[in-house]
Design goal:
By secondary structure, the protein is mainly alpha-helical. The protein has helices spanning 14-22, 34-46, 53-74, 92-121, 147-158, 178-188, 197-200, 207-223, 251-254; strands at residues 4-6, 11-13, 195-196, 226-230, 237-241. The protein starts with a strand and ends with a helix.
């Protein structure tokens, strides 16, 4: 930073002033900040070319640090601290760089807004209303509507609607239940001896009847009336009525509900 300031208590580069204030070599209360800002603004007015953004941002950074430190000294409060306590363990250059990064972040956001403004500037909104002499005529919704059409529409609205019919021809209706099949097999199997499941269902015509008979056999096996066996993988299932099961009371089976 090459900007030189001149005050009653200090004369030199602005960056050196910040270092001396941080080192307690100069009392910041004795340094007026408004003449420093006025001198910098006057320099901007007299410069033939614009200053670099880096120099502008660095001046703003140092000036804001000095202003913050001086405000802490002039405005007492319960949180009053030493001027450099906030930056304890930080070098002045590190503090400046950290805050400079914050300023660059805001500058990047500003660039994004500028880009949005530039893209928006390529659009041209309509600044006038409807052209002179242009009349908007809404369509006549009653064109072609006669009393006869209205009467027919009324009759269609008040006539009794047919009741919806749910067709169940595609739904399979169980002709026999598992409970009925359990009772039937309990009466038939004792006299049939050992037989295969294939032979048991050989006379059945529908798939649902085969499934119901298989479920009924599983229930009889669970009740302890039959044993089921299969000699080989995918072989026939052999059904055997257990000896002595025919003397069991059938009331337990007769009330079976699945």
């Amino acid at each position: 930073m090459t900007f030189v300031v001149t005050t009653p208590s200090f004369s030199g580069p602005l960056e050196l002033l910040l270092q001396m204030v941080s080192a307690h070599e100069i009392d910041l209360v004795d340094v007026p900040l408004s003449p420093i800002v006025d001198a910098f603004v006057e320099r901007l007015r007299n410069e033939a070319t614009l200053l670099d953004v880096e120099e502008l941002s660095e001046f703003l950074l140092i000036a804001s640090i000095l202003l913050e430190m001086k405000s802490h000294q002039l405005l007492p409060g319960r949180d009053a601290t030493e001027p450099d306590e906030e930056f304890l363990g930080w070098e002045e250059r590190d503090v400046m760089l950290a805050r400079l990064l914050e300023l660059r972040t805001y500058a990047s956001i500003a660039d994004q807004f500028v880009s949005l403004f530039q893209r928006a500037s390529r659009s041209f909104p309509r600044v006038r209303g409807v052209n002179d002499g242009f009349v908007v005529r809404p369509p006549d919704l009653l064109v072609g509507v006669t009393p006869a059409l209205l009467a027919a529409a009324y009759l269609r609205g008040v006539e009794e609607k047919p009741m919806p019919v749910v067709r169940l021809h595609h739904v399979t209706v169980d002709a026999v239940t598992v409970a009925e099949t359990v009772v039937s097999l309990a009466q038939r199997l004792p006299s049939m001896g050992t037989l295969s499941f294939r032979r048991l269902v050989a006379d059945l015509e529908t798939r649902i009847e085969v499934i119901v008979h298989f479920l009924a056999l599983l229930e009889l096996c669970k009740l302890g009336h039959v044993t089921l066996g299969q000699g080989s993988t995918f072989g026939d299932v052999e059904i055997s009525w257990m000896i002595g099961a025919e003397h069991l009371e059938l009331e337990r089976i007769d009330v079976y509900e699945g």
